[in-house]
Design a protein that fits this description.
The protein is mostly beta strands and about 130 residues long. About 0% of the residues lie in helices and about 50% in strands. The termini are far apart.
Length: about 130
């Protein structure tokens, strides 16, 4: 199992921004597509975004389209999720994950992802 470590979460006011990072430990992240998921208390896990490694294609859930941007820095072995115009409904634990089929984004079914980070809390509140 691949080791992924998220960071960058925190408390932010509505309308604010945060940038989450997903770093790889012990392997080269460049080869892998990476997805971001979130889970709010009492709610099911939701796929947020994904970036492939084959051609850099990006995918977003409708709920975050136009506000969130996923990117990768292969030199730093890191994938980022830039989150702008945050709203209270974005409050959740955010996870990054690598899919079983390494290079392509398989959609947002959690079962298609085999390696997960420990999560980072994002709280949007005034």
């Amino acid at each position: 199992q691949l080791q992924l470590v998220e960071s960058g979460g925190g408390l932010v006011q509505p309308g604010g921004s945060l940038r989450l990072s997903c770093a790889a430990s012990g392997f080269t992240l460049n080869y892998y597509a990476i997805g971001w998921f979130r889970q709010a208390p009492g709610k099911e896990r939701e796929g947020v975004s994904c970036i492939s490694s084959s051609d850099g294609s990006t995918y977003y859930a409708d709920s975050v389209k136009g506000r969130f941007t996923i990117s990768r820095d292969n030199a730093k072995n890191t994938v980022y999720l830039q989150m702008n115009s945050l709203q209270p409904e974005d409050t959740a634990v955010y996870y990054c994950a690598a899919p079983w089929v390494a290079t392509m984004c398989p959609g947002f079914a959690g079962s298609d992802f085999g390696s997960w980070g420990q999560g980072t809390q994002v709280t949007v509140s005034s």
